[in-house]
Design goal:
By secondary structure, the protein is mostly helical. The chain has one domain. The chain is built from six helices and no strands. α3 packs antiparallel against α4 and α4 runs antiparallel to α6 (95-119). The longest helix is centred in the C-terminal third of the chain and has 25 residues, at 95-119. The radius of gyration is 14 Å and the shape is globular.
């Protein structure tokens, strides 16, 4: 098994987060399907895993608040995975998905803020 470098893990984490957020609601159903059900669904279990988050936090790429919110995001996603909420119409109209999309946006905002404040790095926000 090949272990990702910390930089690869951080890129994987950020790319996964970029696939989930309120911006999805402006996309077509095909685009939502691709972002959530083709890409994000296969990425989030690993990119938001305890292992990945612990590595990112120990290397100073995220802080404990971001780690905890990321774990909460993964928990909420796992709760709806393989349920009737795992559906494009639900992504667009259910309160559960709205909260997930908002949480993802909050996590992204905090990651970008942390990177700027801690390291002076301006990441491209999506």
């Amino acid at each position: 098994m090949i272990q990702l470098t910390i930089e690869q893990s951080f890129d994987f984490y950020l790319n996964s987060l970029k696939r989930c957020g309120l911006h999805l609601l402006e996309m077509t159903e095909d685009e939502i399907y691709y972002q959530i059900f083709d890409e994000f669904a296969t990425e989030y279990p690993a990119s938001l895993s305890q292992y990945t988050l612990d590595r990112l936090e120990s290397e100073g790429l995220i802080d404990s608040q971001v780690s905890e919110l990321s774990k909460l995001l993964q928990k909420k996603l796992l709760e709806i995975d393989n349920t009737d909420h795992w559906d494009i119409d639900k992504v667009k109209h259910s309160e559960k998905w709205k909260k997930i999309l908002e949480l993802s946006d909050e996590v992204k905002k905090l990651v970008y803020q942390y990177q700027r404040d801690m390291w002076g790095i301006e990441l491209e926000y999506v």
